[in-house]
Amino acid sequence: MDAHFLELFGKMLIQAAKSQRQMDQLSNWLRQGFDAANIQGLGDYFQQIYGLADIPEDSAQYTQLFQNAQADFLTAYGEFAGLLGLVPEKKYAALLKDFESLKKKYKAQEKTIAKLTAKLDKEDYPVGDLTNQLTDIIEKQKGEFAKTVKSLSTLFDSSKKK
Predict the structure, then answer these.
(1) Does residue 115 share a domain with residue 73?
(2) Which helix (H) or strand (E) holds 130?
């Protein structure tokens, strides 16, 4: 894990432990893109730890380094949150939506299967008989394949002896 992230996150947790207000500010700071003006100290810590403090903020180099540092921080933050068993709200909402969709699809498929099974039974094609017939066909094909392989091996064995 990124050492800069751990150092910065450690300082953030110490700051956050001082009051709930600071925790709210921390959330705002993360949501608003790491703006140094949002929380006194954390933006400064971020700039110092990621080597941005001595670079003029209006330079192209600062912008590029800041974007890289921000991406590294967010990646490490996601990994750290994952270790704690936390899931981002957007990801949770997307998974919940997928789950609900799959649940509806599952129920619809259950109904369809029940209808088709009832229809097969009603039309005198019991599902068990159909399954047995398919099993018999597979067994016959397996036997024929075994005979073919045996014949081919015999053929190749006899051609090697000549």
Answers:
(1) no
(2) helix 127-161
